[in-house]
Structures are given as C-alpha cells and as structure tokens.
C-alpha cells in the first residue's frame, strides 16, 4: 500500500464522529473527513503565451525533494485538468527556517518547448500559486532547392562560311579647270558736237511784301466775388430706447448617482459528500476558482479553502460558478450570493470517496 495512504488511514485524517441517535449504533453516524492531509501545497497553472491551455500535458517531478511530491489527492500520478493541478509535500518532509524544500516540475506538451519550473516550499508558507507559461515550438522552415541551371561552360560554335574579299575601285583623277580672264569694256566719253549753242538760265529775284501787324488791346476782366450764405442746421438728438432682456430660467438637470458594484465580505463553506457512503462528509482544503455564471470567461483564482471554509470578497446578488480540482477531476458548484454566508455541498464522486 502507498506510504502516504497508510499514513492517512492511521494518523493524519481527522475524523469527527457525531452520534445523533441511539437506536442503531451504525445509524445516523456522520463521519467528517478533513482533507488537509498535506500542509504544504502548490497550485500549478499551465498556459501558453496567448492564455490558451495546451492539450495532453505531462508532468515529471525532479530535484532534491522530487520523490516527496504528490498530487493533492495523495497519488503519485499527476493528471492535469484544464491546465490546473495541485501538488502537495508529503508529511514526512517539512521545510524549516534553516532549510527550504526544493523540487522541479518538468512540463511537456505536444507542439510546445519542454520547460522545467523550480518550486520551493518555505517554512510557514503553506500555499502558493505557480504560473507556468509554455512557448510554442517554432516551425522549421523547409527550403526547396532552386532548379537553376548548373554553371556549365559555354561552348562557342565557330561560324562556317566563305569570306569574299572586297575589291576597292581606284579613285578617279580630277581634271584641272582653266579660268578665262574677264574682259573689261572701256567707257567712251562723248565729246559735245561742234557748233552747239548753250542757253544760260536767268534767275529772277523774288520780292517780299512786308506784313503790317495791328496790336490787340486786352480789356481787364473784373471778377465779382460770390457771396455765400450759410444757413445753420439744427440737429435733433436721436432718442435710443433701451432693450429689455427677458431673463432665461435654467432648470438644473438632476443626474442619478451611479452606484458602483462593490464586492462585499462573503463567507463560503463547501462540504463534499459521497453517494455510495451517505454518512461520509468531506471538508476539502483546496484552491478555489470562480467566474460569473454564463460569462464565457476563463476561471480566475479566488483563494485557498481551508477545511472547507473560505473568506473572500464577491459581488452581492450575482450568480457565480465555483470550481475546485482534485485527483484530476473538476468539481463545480453554482450559486447566487444573496447573503454574507454561503453554504454548499457537492458530490466528490465514487473514485475519490473510495479512498476514504
């Protein structure tokens, strides 16, 4: 039998036996099981850089204290559900102020690079959340060799043909040209004929008749000054009628104050039950996630539930989905927060109940 299970059965499980009646010694006996088996635990949340949860995640424990790490249900198998698993430190090992407990979690998933995450349990730090982000494996680019022609030396084929010589005709000699000198005809001057008579031309002098100028007598012009009579103009002052302003009455707009939704203190109590063992009640010590019902969003971490109890802050009169993961199984409870104290029960399932 597994050492941790033996220890759980013999010493670590706190059983509260309540006798309600005395008719039948076995009737109405309620066994309340405290699941706070491993005092030190770590919630490991695995996703990729986009926030998506990889599929088929495998975990391997290693490091100095790897052999002392269990899944929170006490098993040595490590199933991951929706990227979430809770790891616990076996009861035989505890960190001290002088010595931490160290181990590693190696995470593998198809299509992602393998990652080894160190985890440390320190004295007094009972719970912790470890976020692991995987990186996708880069796709190798395939290079197709080009179909270029190989560099073969070029072969030059000599041209075949008959070369016909070109015969040059001799240049023709230019015959010199003989210039004939030009003959100038002399100008012959004609001698006047003998006996010709030349009649002289007589110039008659012209007579200038003197012109007598009669002086013009100019009479002075007498200018009579114009008399201007200015009639004074009487200005009638303009009368300005003052404008009367009608006062505008402004009605103030009343804006209703916006009441912000403020989270209030809420006390949550969860109790697990087993359908095949109706007298068994389980008080889980687990990490709780939550989201608004029908929101379509991913679950967010709410807090650690100790022995089935968790104090937190939530919006009043809202419906929430609460989820815990145990043994690779998700358990979900839905409820409306209408009071400051909320109690709920959930079925732990046959597989888990069989371990108690």
Summarize the structure.
The protein is mainly beta. Helix content is 4%, strand content 33%.
Structure description:
The structure is a single chain. The protein is mostly beta strands and 356 residues long. Among the domains are: 3-34, no CATH class; 41-134, Carboxypeptidase-like, regulatory domain (Immunoglobulin-like, Sandwich), CATH 2.60.40; 264-353, Immunoglobulin-like, CATH 2.60.40. It contains 2 helices and 17 strands. It has helices at residues 3-12, 350-353, and strands spanning 15-19, 29-34, 41-48, 58-62, 69-71, 84-89, 101-108, 115-121, 127-134, 264-274, 277-283, 286-292, 300-305, 309-314, 319-326, 329-336, 341-347. The strands form 4 sheets. Strands 1, 2, 10, 11, 14 and 17 form a 6-stranded mixed β-sheet that branches. Strands 5-6-3-9 form a 4-stranded mixed β-sheet, with no helix packed on it. Strands 13-12-15-16 form a 4-stranded antiparallel β-sheet, with no helix packed on it. Residues 5-28 and 166-203 have low confidence and may be disordered.
């Amino acid at each position: 039998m597994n050492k941790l299970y033996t220890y759980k059965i013999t010493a670590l499980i706190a059983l509260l036996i309540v006798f309600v009646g005395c008719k039948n010694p076995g009737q109405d006996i309620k066994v309340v099981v405290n699941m706070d088996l491993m005092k030190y635990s770590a919630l490991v949340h695995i996703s990729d850089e986009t926030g998506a949860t990889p599929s088929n995640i495998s975990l391997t424990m290693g490091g100095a204290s790897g052999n002392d790490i269990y899944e929170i249900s006490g098993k040595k198998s490590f199933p991951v559900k929706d990227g979430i698993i809770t790891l616990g430190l076996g009861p035989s090992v505890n960190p001290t102020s002088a010595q931490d407990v160290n181990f590693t979690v190696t995470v593998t998933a198809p299509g992602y690079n393998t990652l080894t995450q160190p985890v440390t349990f320190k004295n007094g730090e009972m719970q912790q959340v470890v976020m692991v982000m995987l990186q996708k494996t880069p796709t190798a680019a395939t290079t197709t060799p080009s179909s270029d022609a190989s560099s073969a030396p070029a072969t030059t084929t000599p041209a075949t043909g008959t070369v016909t010589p070109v015969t040059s005709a001799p240049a023709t000699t230019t015959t010199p040209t003989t210039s004939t000198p030009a003959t100038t005809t002399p100008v012959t001057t004609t001698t006047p004929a003998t006996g010709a008579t030349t009649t002289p031309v007589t110039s008659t002098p012209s007579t200038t008749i003197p012109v007598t100028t009669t002086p013009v007598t100019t009479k002075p012009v007498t200018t009579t000054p114009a008399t201007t009579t200015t009639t004074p103009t009487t200005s009638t002052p303009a009368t300005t009628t003052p404008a009367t302003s009608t006062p505008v009455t402004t009605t103030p707009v009343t804006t209703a104050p916006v009441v912000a939704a403020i989270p209030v203190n809420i006390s949550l109590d969860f109790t697990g039950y087993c359908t095949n063992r109706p007298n068994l009640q389980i008080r889980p010590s687990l990490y709780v996630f939550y989201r608004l019902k029908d929101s379509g969003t991913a679950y967010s971490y709410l807090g650690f539930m100790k022995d089935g109890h968790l104090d937190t802050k939530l919006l009043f009169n809202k419906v929430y989905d609460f989820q815990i993961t145990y043994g690779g199984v998700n358990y979900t409870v839905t409820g409306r927060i209408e009071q400051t104290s909320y109690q709920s029960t959930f079925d732990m399932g046959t597989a888990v109940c069989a371990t108690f």
